[in-house]
Amino acid sequence: MGTMNNKLWWMAGALIALVVGVVFATRSQSRIDGACHEIATSAAVGDISIDETRGVAYLAYLDRKPNADGKQPVGTIMLVDLNAKTPRVRAALATEPPNFRPLGVSVYAPAQGPRRLFVLDAGMGTFAVHVFEQSATGPFTLAETRHDSRLVNPRTILATGPDQFDIVNQEPWWRFASATNVSARYGKRSLIGSSTDRKLMLCEDGK
After folding, report:
1. What's the domain range around 82?
2. Of 113, 98, 101, which Cα lies nearest the Cα of 162?
3. What is the CATH number of the domain that holds 86?
């Protein structure tokens, strides 16, 4: 009897999560009052972080599913300048670490000093956090790599200082149904990506 009750509770929870995810996705889409068009990409976008001062979006650029040969694809960090008349995807890094599979990205943009990208990487067999620093010429170069046993199934990374970051190891239950979609907004423009599809949408507020 106890097992049956547990199954019923699990099914009810899953149904609620699905309904809530759909509602949130619908509401999020309804807040965008304007035209949307697709930006060409060659990989899925699993996370987006925006430099609010400069209006530049950084993308965790990775196909998470194995390719036709059964191998795990590698990825990179790309950027989109949301101030450009026609925004497009461009490289953000000077070079990538070996077997780079970025799951999350967060930009730290201080008032003074170089900008830093904190990137959650799943390409080395264990999770790692790479810290990239922006060079004088623009591209970011690898400054350091950190490993920690507390990185257990990490989902989100948030830069909180030049050497500090927070990690969320599990999504809240109500985000499971919509966890494949990511979005970020700067001014009247919004970017909407997906960790499962090669689709990046740019939406512009008509107001």
Report:
1. 32-204
2. 113
3. 2.120.10.30
